[in-house]
Every structure is written in C-alpha cells, then in structure tokens.
Amino acid sequence: MTRLLDVENLTLQFDTDEGRITAVDNVSFSLEAGEVMGLVGESGSGKSVTAKSLMKLNPRNAIYSENTRVTLHLDSGPVDIMSLQTSTDLQVVRGGAISMIFQEPMASFAPAISIGDQMVEQLMIHTDMNAKQSKELSEEMLARVGISDASTRYKQFAFELSGGMRQRAMIAMALSTKPKLLIADEPTTALDVTIQAQVIDLMKDLVTEFGMGIIFITHDLGVIAQTADTVAVMYLGRLVEQGTVRDVIRAPGHPYTQGLIAALPSLDDLDTPLTPIPGDIPSPLERPPGCVFNTRCPVNMGDRCSNIVPEFSNIKGSHNVACHLAEEGNKGT
Asked: What's this model's pTM, rounded to 2 decimal places?
C-alpha cells in the first residue's frame, strides 16, 4: 500500500479565558491509501479536534506545537499542511484532497443556498467540471447515499430536509469531489440502522474504487468492528492504544479500551447489566499528571501511574499500548 498521511507529534493547545488548555498531546499515526482507520474514544477525548487539525480548521485561538508535522502525500508530491497559511493555500486540503463529514449537518450547509448549488459550487472550485457535469454528479451522489427523488432534493434547502436526510446530503457532498482522504466525524449518528448500513457500504465501495483513505471517528466500537482496518483509541488528548481492529477488539491491552468494550451491551444475554467506566473524563484544565487515565483506571499502579507518562509498548505486530502494565509485561518476556 502507498502512504497517504503522516501525523507526527501533533500537540494542540487553546488559549481560553480560564487559561491555556491542552486538547491534543503528542499524537502520532500514519494512514495508507485505501485504509480505514477508526478513531475511538468518549466525548471530550480530542477526536474531532485532532481531525480538524488535519485541515487546520480549529479556531484562531488554537496553538500548534513547533514539533507538529502533518504531511499529506499526493501524486504531485508531499504537502506540509502545517506550513499552509492562507485560505488559498489551504484549498488543496479543505474540500480538495481532504473532505470532512461533520457531526452536525445543519452547521455544514448555508441556509439560504440550495443543497444542489452548494454541491455544484464546491465541484467547480475543486475539479475541472463544468456546471452541467457538476449537477449530474451531485444528483448521482445524492441518490447513491439513499436519498430518493434526488433531482427534487437537489433543489431544496437544508431546512426542508429531515435530520437524517441532511446527514446523507452532507455525506454526498463530501464524497462528490472524490477526495484522497475522507474524515468522517460520527457520520451515521443521526441515521437509522438501514441507512447506516448503506452509508458504510458506500464508503467501503469508494475506498475500493478510488483508493481513498478514511479516518472514521466514533464512540461506537460496533461500527468500527465492521468498518475499519485499524483503530486508534484516544483518551483526554492522548492515544492510548493502536493496532488492527482484530487485535484491539479481541485482545485490548489498555484498561481504557477494555472498559469501552465491557460497556457494550451483549446481545447474547440481554439480562447482563451494562458496565460503564467509573468516573468522568477530567476537564482539559485539570489534566492528571502521569498517565491521563490514572484517575479512572481500575488497575492503577500508584505513584508510577500518577507521575510518569507511559510510552508505547509493542504487544505484537502493529499492536501498541501506552500503559505501564504493558511495559511490565514486556520486561517479563
């Protein structure tokens, strides 16, 4: 496979009225062309902020570390995203080589412009299509994501569509430019299970057809299990576990990942009570020292977990865990 994206030492802070907070802390990962990577974690873990960093979409009070490197590998050569400054420079990644499906579809459409006109506009900016070709492709994409009577919906405004239909229209718009990288931020949250399956199948088809890479952000490990090739687990701005979906789901090495899986309902025994992770994710203003999960960890090792940030330890193959327990296990082998 061909390398598509390299993220190295991504550290992002925000200046706020309460002080400077760290939202993403030293995150590194890579993505191959044609690979679907699941980015998993609770709300507030930094998933969306990480994804927006790949297009420099975070607000003006965002401060990136000098060591942060984000490189997108295109046919024309590598693009150093952190070095792009102006809106014109950023067009290569914003809606061009990278598209993003946001959590809230209503915020992604201009209310006074029809769905179709917005789709045509972006195609004419980012491709060499004319207006007629752009209209035909837009209607085709609306139909492919399960919107009936696409030619009529094309002429409508966002407020005229239901929530689920707006979500599908947003997905169609993101996919229509055939980006090299698609960032899908909870793309199926507002959809019923039938449409969820259609959207997931469509994404898989596009990966096969165009060699597109996808970063799929969700808290739903069930969706990740049937969609992604690899998974990265995030907690309070740090990656705590990475590996193939098979390895991470079947043999989670980090107590946080184990807790996420234990919290899933069991269809085999409907009487089994749910097992939530105890406690709440801390505020970024009150980041725990040492391992960021130590305040909720059921196997806390005391001072070591409370004071020392764990490094990634290799479990096997590409399966890596940032946990002192894994470090101890490696020493014993």
From this structure: 0.88
